[in-house]
Amino acid sequence: MLKEIIDVSKADLTQLGKVYHLDRAANSGAGWESTITSDTPVRENCKIGFVRSIQLPVSVDKMERHLTTKEAMMAASDDIVVALAPASGEKADDAPDMKKLICVLLKPGDVLVVKKGVWHSACYGYNHPAMYYFMFEDLNEPVIWTKIIDGPCEIRL
């Protein structure tokens, strides 16, 4: 099923997560500008990862989730797209549902913090291969990739 890509600033993320727009400078000095999140996006004992990904179009047939921690995703230098689906429960046999899945566009400076239990794909480059960072609280939870109900999800420009 083909899904529309929604700019993260226009997406309803009430059930899915929170967005920080760090490209909107709050502080500045001689030759620099910066912004810091207003609260702690992810708790202590965090790890940071870096991913190189292919560009759209992609066919996503599986998603992952974390029941015990949030995960933050940050575009490094180019626009990226991620598929999200609401938490479906905490049973091992739960799965992401295509009918509830959305695809959001993140621009450099956007930080998406995915809530606990929310299904998410890897991120993919919007116009060309891209790189992104992710951060999570390390609780040694196993990562299980689960097939999308009525999937796969086709993400295209």
UniProtKB/TrEMBL annotation:
Reaction equation(s) it catalyzes: (S)-ureidoglycolate = urea + glyoxylate
InterPro entries linked to this entry: RmlC_Cupin_sf (IPR011051), Ureidogly_lyase (IPR007247), Ureidoglycolate_lyase_dom_sf (IPR024060)
Molecular function GO labels: lyase activity
Transmembrane segment boundaries: none
Coiled-coil blocks: none
Keywords from the named record: Lyase, Purine metabolism
Quaternary structure annotation from Swiss-Prot or TrEMBL: Homodimer.
Name this protein carries in UniProt: Ureidoglycolate lyase
